[in-house]
Amino acid sequence: MAKRTLYRGGALFDGARLLPEAGLLLDDAGRVLALGNGAFEAEADASVELGGDILCPGFVDLQVNGGGGVMFNDAPTVETLATIAEAHIGLGTAAILPTLITDTAEQTRAAIAAAVAAVEAGVPGIAGLHLEGPHLSVARKGAHSAGLIRPMEEADLAALLAAAEALPALMITVAPENTTPEQVRALAQAGAIVSLGHTDADYDTAMAYQQAGAACVTHLFNAMSQLGNRAPGVVGAALDNGGLAAGLIADGIHVHRAAIRAAWGAKQGPAPIFLVTDAMAPAGTDQRSFTLNGREIRREGGRLTLADGTLAGADLDLVTALGVLHREVGVPLEDALRAATSAPADVAGLSHLGRVQVGERAPLLRIAGDLSGCGWVVRP
Q1: Which cofactors go with this protein (predicted)?
Q2: Residue-level pLDDT at 1
């Protein structure tokens, strides 16, 4: 007979609500038998006291460039994806969109093939693919290689449409400078999540591209036109347009805490702000440097930078981002937890992730009450 374990003495976040002092009854396969404020002791064979810790669905991260000492760009293979995903599982993330940074057409095709093969093989943690470029703006390239940025051509669009059909989730970061509204519309209609990023587009252009099918902006505030009093830019469009979700790197380095607080209060409509790590090769390791497109990136003081000081991804995990968002910015804990779980899952069309539901087995985290760390109760 299956053993039933009751977790009690803490809070439970089910993907929508934070339930204080809730109980959760699991069988030994990790399937949820009951949850809430009921008295489940009679049904349990054993119990675990949480001591004020929080039970939460595994995190969902839609922007992960590397981990475990490797970059997806360096070797876009199933083996690389397995290494990256395992590193992030170790940090509490149940599902990722591995992210290819601007590269050649050949590397992009290889990345698509690897992601499709990983999903078909059931590699734990791989939920699809994020292509961040190469159809960006050189003016807002950040750490992307200017020599690899280019317009989207017919062959590119055909490859992306095929990838959108083959993958459970395909996110594509593009700039209006190097894509057309018709291309965005075709991608959105095929099921891709089109995200505006690395762009100097103005407010009106960003709004027009949302009407064409863009549903998101990539790492809000970073590598995009800023919010000005007469020129609201992409930042202003993201906050004003209820149809544009926004990824956010909440490390206190990429975006000032006051800017996060202002954006959180200003965001309009149902499309959420959600957390991403923009993690690179050092995630889950003590690695001090690595290369991207032949350029050294250094890890120091919580930053990843090129030699000239340009930020190149983030040295961040989602439980740390939760702490910044809740403790330092002041976002309510329920909202912060949603931004790391069900909100990104919904943006990517992966609504089976980021939730705890009766009758289902779901990756389940135990997060320290002070948000200082986490560990698995039910591993992915």
Answers
A1: a divalent metal cation
A2: 59
Tens digits of residue pLDDT in 50-107: 999 999 999 999 999 999 999 999 999 999 999 999 999 999 999 999 999 999 999 9
Residue 279 counted as an annotated binding residue:
no
223 is in an annotated binding site: yes
CATH 3.30.2170.10 matches 59-347: no
Cα(310)–Cα(320) distance, integer angstroms: 22
Which class is 4-57+356-378 in CATH? mainly beta
Single-letter amino acid code for the residue at 154: E
Q: Judge whether 212 and 188 are in contact, CB under 8 Å.
A: yes
CATH fold match for the domains 4-57+356-378 and 59-347: no
Closest CA to 184 of 164, 210, 151, 221: 210
Entry pTM: 0.97
- Helices 203-212 & 233-240 angle (0-180, nearest 10): 50
Is there a contact between 102 and 130 (Cβ–Cβ < 8 Å)? no
Question: Where in the sequence numbering do the catalytic residues fall?
Answer: 278
Boundaries of every domain in the chain: 4-57+356-378, 59-347
CA dist., res. 83 & res. 14, Å (int)? 28
